[in-house]
């Protein structure tokens, strides 16, 4: 999180420059264009969330392939080097360790990629920050990335604004926006009120960071928006205001709405870019892993393995070979989306720009897996050699 430092604060709403009619028209047109762009971005993400590709691969991955291979490994447990005595038992243990490490990594990598994809979806849709008010500094309540939009304060008169608020604070309006029982309202909103309470040093009153400043209870009373009423109604008004804060429905001027919308476009663009890369990478690694595991399973079910002098040793050799094949192009596959992007920039000496050095967001999984990949290469080769020795001994 960004630390608070000495900054030049923006003008208050009342001190902002007065906008001409042309400037207001330009700002409104800009906001309309931004809303269309944001809507398009969210439709793109919806296509990923509801996409059937990964939803089809996941059950196949666990039900049909992984379970069958685990059964093969468990059925083949035993000393595969009996001629070497106690050393043979150690060699068998080493064989299983190498195979299980690479096999486990082949399951972990797709699941890790899927985990990061889900994380990116949450990051795209949910935020814990707000740029709206000084009172909200330190407020980290999760909110939808598309904030609420209140009518700009410089677009209407104070009387019209009060009339809007009076309508919103009618009991039936509150019930419409908060369709919960009294028990649920208290359960949902009371903890947020308690967690965001603070003492205003200037007014010497208790306030809440989550509640938009223009919705302060004392201000609403002084403006004649709400009257002194029973405690239940006042509590519902507070819950109503909390809901507005959770939805980040702050009243902004046209200038601030335009500034926030531009920041929102950039924020969505950053996360959408990463989400697309992550989705493609996850799909590629799932497809590659399934291809290798299906190949291993098909060979294990073939007669040449079942009729071998030692079917268990032959089965372990097939699994070890499959692990080696899976490991070889792993980093190449993870890096393919980046290579596709930079392919048009191939230089004369057949080299592409080093995107990794200045864009680490896009290859986080690949960078994290480098040491595990090298270890998997060594383990798969060692497992392949030990499995070959077991077959030779059995023959």
Helix content: 55-70%
Please summarize the sheet with the most strands.
2 strands, antiparallel
**DSSP E strands, number:** 4
| Secondary-structure element pattern, one letter each | HHHEEHHHEEHHHHHHH
Q: Using the CA coordinates, give the radius of gyration.
A: 31 Å
**Rough outline:** elongated
Tally of helical runs: 13
Give the spatial strand order of the biggest sheet. Answer: 1-2
Strand pairing plus helix content: what structural class? mainly alpha
Give the total of domains.
Answer: 2
The low-pLDDT segments are none
**Amount of beta strand:** under 5%
Query: Could you report the average pLDDT, rounded to the nearest whole number?
Result: 83
User: In whole angstroms, how far apart are the ends?
Assistant: 64 Å
Can you give a write-up of this model?
- This protein is mainly α and 395 residues long.
- The protein folds into two domains: 46-125 and 263-345 and 356-394, no CATH class; 133-251, no CATH class.
- Helices cover 66% and strands 3% of the residues.
- The strands form two sheets. A two-stranded antiparallel ribbon has the order 1-2. A two-stranded antiparallel ribbon has the order 3-4.
- The protein is elongated, with a radius of gyration of 31 Å.
- The mean pLDDT is 83.
What's the structural blueprint in terms of helices and strands?
Blueprint: H1 21-49, H2 52-75, H3 86-125, E1 126-127, E2 143-144, H4 158-168, H5 171-177, H6 182-195, E3 197-200, E4 205-208, H7 217-222, H8 231-246, H9 254-300, H10 303-306, H11 311-327, H12 330-342, H13 364-394
Antiparallel strand pairs: 1-2, 3-4
Helix pairs in contact: 1-9, 2-9, 2-11, 3-9, 3-11, 3-13, 6-8, 9-11, 9-12, 11-13, 12-13
């Amino acid at each position: 999180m960004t630390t608070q430092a000495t900054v030049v604060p923006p003008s208050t709403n009342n001190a902002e420059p007065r906008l001409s009619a042309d400037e207001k028209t330009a700002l409104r047109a800009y906001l309309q264009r931004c809303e269309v762009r944001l809507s398009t971005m969210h439709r793109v993400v919806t296509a990923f969330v509801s996409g059937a590709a990964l939803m089809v691969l996941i059950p196949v991955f666990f039900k049909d392939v992984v379970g069958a291979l685990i059964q093969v490994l468990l059925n083949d447990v035993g000393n595969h080097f009996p001629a070497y005595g106690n050393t043979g038992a150690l060699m068998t243990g080493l064989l299983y360790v190498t195979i299980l490490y690479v096999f486990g990594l082949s399951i972990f990598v797709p699941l890790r990629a899927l985990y990061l994809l889900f994380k990116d979806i949450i990051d795209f849709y949910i935020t814990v920050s707000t740029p709206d008010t000084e009172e909200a500094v330190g407020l980290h309540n999760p909110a939808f990335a598309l904030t609420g939009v209140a009518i700009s304060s410089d677009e209407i008169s104070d009387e019209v604004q009060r009339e809007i608020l009076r309508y919103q604070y009618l009991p039936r309006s509150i019930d419409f926006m908060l369709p919960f029982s009294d028990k649920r309202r208290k359960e949902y909103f009371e903890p947020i009120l308690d967690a965001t309470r603070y003492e205003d040093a200037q007014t010497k009153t208790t306030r809440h960071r989550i509640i938009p400043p223009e919705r302060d209870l004392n201000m609403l009373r002084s403006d004649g928006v709400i009257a002194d009423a029973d405690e239940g109604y006042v509590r519902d008004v507070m819950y109503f205001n909390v809901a507005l804060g959770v939805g980040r429905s702050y009243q902004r001027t046209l200038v601030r709405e335009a500034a926030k919308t531009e920041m929102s476009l950039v924020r969505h663009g950053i996360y959408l870019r990463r989400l697309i890369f992550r989705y493609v990478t996850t799909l590629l690694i799932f497809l590659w892993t399934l291809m290798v595991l299906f190949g291993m399973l098909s060979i294990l079910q073939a007669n040449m393995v079942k009729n071998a002098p030692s079917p268990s040793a032959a089965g372990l050799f097939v699994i070890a070979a499959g692990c080696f094949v899976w490991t070889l192009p792993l980093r190449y596959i993870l890096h393919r989306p980046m290579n596709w992007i930079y392919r048009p920039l191939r230089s004369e000496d057949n080299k592409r720009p080093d995107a990794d050095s200045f864009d680490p967001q896009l290859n986080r999984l690949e960078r994290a897996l480098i040491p595990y990949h090298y270890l998997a290469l060594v383990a798969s080769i060692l497992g392949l050699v030990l499995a070959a020795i077991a077959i030779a001994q059995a023959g």
